[in-house]
Amino acid sequence: MTPLLNGLIEAALCASETILDIYETDFDVELKGDDSPVTQADKAAEAVILKHLAQLAPDIPVVAEEAAAEGNLPDVDGDFFLVDPLDGTKEFIKKNGEFTVNIALIRNNVPVVGVIFTPAKGWLYAGEVGKGCWKGEVADPRNGHEIVDWREISVRKAGDAVDVVGSRSHHTPEAEAYLKDFTVGAQKSIGSSLKFCLLASGEADLYPRFGRTMEWDTAAGDAILSAAGGTVETEDGRRLQYGKVVQDDAPFANPFFIAKTL
Fold it and tell me: Which pLDDT score is estimated for 173?
């Protein structure tokens, strides 16, 4: 793995220490302007990640979810990082463990390096397009950052029936309509960006998302899936792009997309 990917892994693991400290308390929940929830953990983890990225790559701008919510958006004309310090805040609030730390590098409007870590479960996914994709485990991120069972992963070839992954928190009739064109096998539900990881590790084949997402929600998972041999496309079959300025919508908003291994 490259020094950059190792640096992003370390940033995610350090942020996870902060998240876990708050996770074990009776933390407060606030609502942002778009009515999405935010906790102290989101903000504290983002501060940790921003500090690491400033040391790792000081010349690369960072688009981070909580800073963006406050209107702090850098100009992105070239490489930039996308950070979701706590993806799956609803899962964090439910305390089901299915929340992640997401960090990605965008180059030429597509994610090329990504890290996803689940603080409560210890699952680590990392990918760099053209170099490989890996999965490992960290037994206790607050007691050293030793990664065990580190192995390369890749997408699988789908059979006649496709296994579909979706969200625990979002179900849409559009996704159900889209799936009518497929022979669906198992349907798996999991929170946060872990849906991309199931495809990357050969545990599912298709993730249609007909609901609102932002680029920081998807970038790390997109990079990992792409590094593992999959793709993320819009409804019309085009590669999902990043660094978007969307007319009549917030900057960095995503259209509907389909993540797939097909």
Answer: 86
